[in-house]
Amino acid sequence: MFAQSVSRTDFEGVVLDKNSREPIIGATVNLPQYGLWAVTNIDGEFIFKNVPEGETAIAFQYVGMVKLETRTTISKQTGNIPRFYMEEANFGIEEITVVAKSNKTGASTASTISRSAIDHLQATSLSDVLELLPGQLASNPSLTSASKPSLRQVQSDGLNSMGTSIVINGVPVSNNANLQVGNTATDGVLTTGYTSTAGSGTDMRRISADNIESVEVIRGIPSVEYGDLTSGVIIVNPKAGKSHYQARLKINPTLTQASVSKGFAVGKKDGSLSVDFDYAKSLADERRPYQGFQRVTANMLYSRTFLDNIRTTSGLRFYSDLDAQKLDPSDIKYQRKRSSENTGFNFNTNILWSLNQDFLKSVRFNVSADYAEQKGYTQEIKGNFGYMVTSAMLDGTVASNRSEQVVRADGQLVTNTDQPGREALTNILPYEFLTQMTTYGKPLNIFAKAVANMFTEFGGFDNRIVAGAEWRTDVNFGRGKVFDPLMPPTAGLRMRPYKDIPALNQLSVYVEDNVSKTIAGRDLKLQLGLRYDMIQPGRNDGGNVFSPRFNASYEIIPKTLTIRGGWGITAKAPPLVYLYPAPAYFDFINFNNIGAAGLADEQKLSIVTTKVFDTSNSSLKIAKNTKSEIGFEFEHGGMSFSVTVFLEKLKNGYSFSTDFSSYHLFELVKYRGTERPGTYPALTVDPAATKNMVMSYNTPMNNRVNQTKGLEFDFDFGRINAIRTSFVFNGAWMKSEMYSTTPSFFQKNPDADGNYKDIGVYGAGDGSSYERLSTNLRIIHNIPKISFVVSLSIQTIWSDKHTYLGLDNTTPIGYMSVQNGLKYIALNPGDVINPDIQKQILESRYITESYNPLWLFNLRLTKEIRNTLGFTFFLNNVFMNQPLEESKRNPGNYTLRNPKQFFGAEVWVKF
Q1: Helix (H) or strand (E) run with residue 729 in it
Q2: Where would I find the H helices in 237-293?
């Protein structure tokens, strides 16, 4: 199988600076077809030994330089060594790139965003960078609200952002152990009083754009090397290598940001050390300085080559951010405060070992540990309470406000807090009180990966084989929610240490073959891979999933027209918040005379029964997304055109919802009391008041489906040298449907006597459909001689629609009978429907909300002076176009469209 079908030879070359003709030391050289790499020496030279002869792709990278990708012919070298020239990435070069460039990762749809594009965009965080992708809408830069990634979806949601993997220096950023959430059992949502992205995607505000060298976004079917994702991959390549001192200052009406960076050469052969520091402060509104965001990041990245064949890149990252709403002096009534603090450290190392054996070419190791301390705080004055609360944690606990156990008039014991495990404190809440709660999280994320790159020729085909294994551990050692249990923020809330929650472990193995062959002068490329993920190996609450993936491309017209397509499955494990949710607590009043007039304190009595339910779902499945796409790329005369049609369907999406098993009946015994002097009333059971109570809670479920179909296009018409102007036109049409696959429930409030109504059951399919067609024409004018670039972005939203799904679910398919122990009774067509289970659907929900075409003009200019001083200015919404449009669904309501006019400037100095 491994027989050599072509001759081999050594290949040498030298890499030089295009302007100075000086050698570039430490540049990385890759032969991607064979999985080989090399690093240039002190003379800028590199060598690959024993590589196949013939034409192949070759790529060169170095910090601060424009990435060079070209083709070369490898043959026995008898004459001059080939020279390759790289040019510095500044605004004085002819082919300056300030937009996202379409490229193929294997044969999957992807875009690369360079450092010059990030500078021209004046990005403050990774979130701003994604604006350059086809179909993404422009917005004013802001750090005052959480920003989560969204790929190939009209309306971003937690599932899409959770399924987008962000990879920095070869290591994925994990949010699986984030447990900064509210009461999921009763609320059914992940929101809190403070900012949090638990159970969804990474907050991109925390990733500064100033230390990024380039970003690659894979929207299609990624290699099987990337896992624990459903939507796509955002690969962030930080600056690593020798570079100038650089200081940056950025300012706009709501943001101030400053950063410094430097890349040092540690001796001639001891590698390089890159360091950077960033500080940013943002206010939602300068007139109200009580709400804002602050960020501090610091990075060190050490790179070195050992023995000419071992390349290491190790990084240490510190990050700290504070998102806070301080006390507004005018908020005397409620005294609201909230804050979210995150401080963490990340260590990662990337080791690449070039072996260049006949079959095994290289081995790569990645190890990372990320530890953070999270602190979420909320406070607010609550009112109109006046009832008793309890700290009971055990199901069936009956507590009272008395220090002694309470007995009925017949001598039977009522309370049971003297039993082991049922000890509970109680308190009668005042009618107005200040609640304060702090949520402490200490997530630890560990990642380790080993990957082998192999190459062989078989049957005339080149085969670059990738095989690897990964281990991930996500665990949280935090104290969890901490508050005064006798002054709880909400009813039914209890404290739960996060350190008691098991860790999430994942073991993954994968193999992939990248096949290439030239047939009749046309390149054929195939990428066939299989990934196997084991979730919680060795535990009963785990699972496993196979993820096959396939990409292919073929040149119809050599170097001109290529068709490509792909199909694959991606999977995302449930984060800890879904895997191990908090229990549900219900507190019911059996007797209460606290509010009665004329009673002495020793006569007051309140009795509470606590019910506790495990809300976990032992049959929770792994969310999977089936992705498929087909497209073509056309290149001619400096122009390139790319079109991709795609379809994605995510099944088993996570949510907190109710099902039949989360509804329960509980007979609440009520007492009547006869007053007694000097002690609590004599209690007897009140049969008329004793009733069945209906309880329901939210449990993690796999009942969400996200389906998106669409068309992306990216047309680069090239640079017209006569007017020094290039035109780039891209955009996307997308239609996203998000709906539930389980029945919904409808229950009216109890009647005046406290009797519960039957629960109506309606069919599945409730959700929403979003459709949008948007384009962006970027006109880029540059004058290389004076290092000047100005661009105008013309964004057009041609169509924007929203439709409710499941509107045919107007009639219940059955009901749960309260009188029959919540037994489900199906309804047949023509059956008489009890009005108690019939929900009302607003007529407006049948109307499709749509908007007229909308234009947005954004202007940016960049000027460099002798590659030392740079200045960037932007003006969004140049013509102050913010039309008011009346809602078709709700006449009389108006929407102010387009972001407001906004401007900002950045200056940087290199020395």
Answers
A1: strand 725-740
A2: none
